[in-house]
Specification:
Layout (H helix, E strand, L loop, with lengths): L9 H14 L3 H36 L1 E2 L2 H12 L10 E2 L3
Antiparallel strand pairs: 1-2
Amino acid sequence: MSTTTIRIDEQLKARIGSAATQAGKTAHAFILEALTQKLDQVEQDNAFQALAAERWARIRATGQTVAWDEARAYLSARAQGQPAKKPKARKLGA
C-alpha cells in the first residue's frame, strides 16, 4: 500500500475528525471510505454517460425509438411486478 499526502485546512480536518467519530471510524478509514464512494459515483456516472451516448448514436443512426408514454407504461408495470409486453421501436417522429 502506498502513501499519499494531502493538505487540508484545520477546519476541514476537524470536521472529518468529528464525522469519523460519529461514524465510529478513524479519520483515515472515514477518508478512504469517502474517496471510494466518490470514485464509485464518478465511475457509475461515466458508465451511464457512455451508455446514453451509445444509445443516442443508435437512435440517430437507425431513427428507431420508443415513445415515452409506451416506455413509461412498460417500466411502471415492470416496477410493480406485473408482466408487460415490450414496446416496439418505431421511426422517430412517426
